Amino acid sequence: MKQPCVYMLASQEYGTLYVGVTSDLIARLYQHRTGGVKGFTARYGVNRLVRFEQFETMLDAISREKQLKRWHRQWKINLIESENPRWADLAPSLGLPPLPSP
């Protein structure tokens, strides 16, 4: 899936949230899930894809990422729940294996 997009990850339902941008969502998710991305997401176990938006250009995706990063936490939760009320991991619908059960 080589297309600019903004994605939101969560550690669990109502858990720690992360907003990122990428041009290859599948590859980026794989990095998050296998520990290839050091830092915040690895430290807090944030690897469940709960929302993503695709864009025509990377500039549009970066602009949206910056907007979402300025949002209050509750606004982000409301956005996630507007399309994914159960906080399901969306990565399997993109072809990645499901996360192991806790």
Shape: globular
Largest sheet: 3 strands, antiparallel
CATH architecture: 3-Layer(aba) Sandwich
What's the mean pLDDT score?
A: 94
Q: How many E strands? A: 3
Adjacency order of strands in the biggest sheet: 2-1-3
* Low-pLDDT residue intervals, each spanning 5 or more residues: none
In the CATH hierarchy, what is the class?
Alpha Beta
**CATH fold description:** GIY-YIG endonuclease
Structural class: alpha+beta
| Gyration radius from CA atoms, angstroms | 13 Å
Write the element-wise H/E pattern from the N-terminal end onward.
Answer: EEHHEHH
Number of helices: 4
Helix content percent band:
25-40%
Percentage of β-strand residues:
15-25%
Q: Report how far apart the termini are.
A: 28 Å
Describe this structure in words.
InterPro entries: GIY-YIG_endonuc (IPR000305), GIY-YIG_endonuc_sf (IPR035901), UPF0213_domain (IPR050190). This protein is an alpha+beta fold and 102 residues long. It has one domain: GIY-YIG endonuclease (3-Layer(aba) Sandwich), CATH 3.40.1440. It is 38% helix and 24% strand. It contains four helices and three strands; from the N terminus they run ββααβαα. Strands 2-1-3 form a three-stranded antiparallel β-sheet, with helices on both faces. The radius of gyration is 13 Å and the shape is globular.
List keywords for this structure.
alpha+beta; GIY-YIG endonuclease; GIY-YIG nuclease family protein; single chain; 102 residues; GIY-YIG_endonuc; 24% strand; three-stranded antiparallel β-sheet; UPF0213_domain; 4 helices
